[in-house]
């Protein structure tokens, strides 16, 4: 598959539906206090850059970069549309975000994801790109339903 990634202002219906599906799935797999996914308004904050990914004009995924400070950023809202899972969308988005973080001169890229079996594919993806497990960062607290990962750039 060929992918095209672009900045997204989050105004389209398709991206709203994909993010709604993302939040719904997070709540299906995690208790409410352990869901750290952002809604549309949360993703529109100035410290966040959001991208959508298309293939042949079809929305297939998305991802965001939240700058925490001058040297550290967090990956947010990595999502692949269900029909396109296992086709390389996640790798494509992750590599784009890592590349963008390096371009910005960031020194560290971190993320939070679930500790449950439903999140195992995401953890494997991050591990395969050099992310190591770490302690909670930013405003996160230790939570048995979350794991934290980081990559030194």
Radius of gyration: 14 Å
Would you tell me the structural class of the helices and strands? Answer: alpha+beta
Helix fraction bin? 25-40%
Number of strands: 7
Total helical segments: 4
What is the string of helix and strand elements? EHHEEEHEHEE
Distance between the termini: 28 Å
Numbering strands along the chain, what is their spatial order in the largest sheet?
A: 1-2-3-4-5-7-6
User: Mind describing the biggest β-sheet?
Assistant: 7 strands, mixed
Average pLDDT for all residues = 95
Shape: globular
Low-pLDDT ranges:
none
State which percent range the strand residues make up.
25-35%
Would you mind describing this structure in some detail?
The protein is an alpha+beta fold and about 150 residues long. About 30% of the residues lie in helices and about 30% in strands. It has helices spanning about 15-30, 40-45, 90-105, 120-130; strands spanning about 5, 50-55, 60-65, 70-80, 110-115, 130-135, 145-150. Strands 1-2-3-4-5-7-6 form a 7-stranded mixed beta sheet, with helices on both faces. Strand 4, helix 3 and strand 5 (about 110-115) form a beta-alpha-beta unit. The chain is globular and about 40 Å long.
